[in-house]
Amino acid sequence: MFRTPRLSLTMEMMVLAVGVLSYVASATVPNVQVPAPRNLRVSSYNLEHVLQWDSPNTSTSWDGANTMTYSVKQLVFNEDALEDRWEELPHCAHVRVNQCQVTNTTYAVYDTHHFKVFAEIGNRTSFSVESFKFVPY
């Protein structure tokens, strides 16, 4: 009968420690914060409303600056629940430009409208930046 040689207890502990450290190292993903957009504003001309923002402050060497997208949410009053909720604007989701046409979502010209914008890189998202209240009329 063939028997494999038994490792010493010290050697077994070292092998176990290396295995655990390898697992922890492979499971650790650096938590890199995505910088948030800046200077959110709504411009209006002839009842055409455009939400605009500035890109985050980033260095040119910052990883991900070339793959950054933006998504916009609008605060909407939910009549069934009698509360407000943030809804994503599908035509302003994952866009690469620093603006979004919001005329069709602000058709109630006497209502107050609020927006917020997120910067995204892959599955990471920045903190949101909210607009001041906007009343089209």
TrEMBL record:
Signal sequence bounds: 1-27
InterPro entries in the record: FN3_dom, FN3_sf, Ig-like_fold, Type-II_Cytokine-TF_Rcpt
A single GO cellular-component term on record: plasma membrane
Keywords per UniProt: Signal
Gene Ontology terms, MF aspect: cytokine receptor activity
UniProt key word Signal: yes
Domain (Fibronectin type-III): residue spans on this chain: 14-127
Domain of life assignment: Eukaryota
SUPFAM superfamilies in UniProt: Fibronectin type III
Gene3D superfamilies, per database record: Immunoglobulins
Stated name of the protein: Fibronectin type-III domain-containing protein
